[in-house]
Design brief:
globular; mainly alpha
């Protein structure tokens, strides 16, 4: 996946997160270094699951539990990186 595609992917994932978590910010304001569990994002285990389900639907991919556990999801960037790797491996749509 080239850099431009990765930027588009990050924007799409951020948009999904904003929609699912009902955040009042623009995708460009959601820095990739922000912790998923910070007050800005406010994610918990249930909202992470909901976000992953929406990402699966949007990109027509399957996210295995093992992928999530190995990714050590800590911030927005780590989520984008995990999804990018899955799309690259599965050839999902971006």
């Amino acid at each position: 996946m080239d850099r431009a595609s990765n930027v588009d992917l990050a924007a799409q994932i951020k948009s999904i997160m904003i929609r699912v978590l009902d955040l009042d910010i623009a995708p460009g304001q959601l820095d990739e270094k922000v912790s998923l569990y910070s007050p800005v994002v406010g994610m918990d285990s249930l909202s992470l699951l909901h976000t992953l389900v929406e990402i699966e639907k949007e990109f027509d991919i399957e996210i295995d539990d093992e992928d999530v556990m190995l990714a050590e999801l800590r911030n927005v960037g780590s989520l984008v990186e995990m999804i990018s790797g899955i799309i690259g491996a599965e050839g999902g749509k971006a």
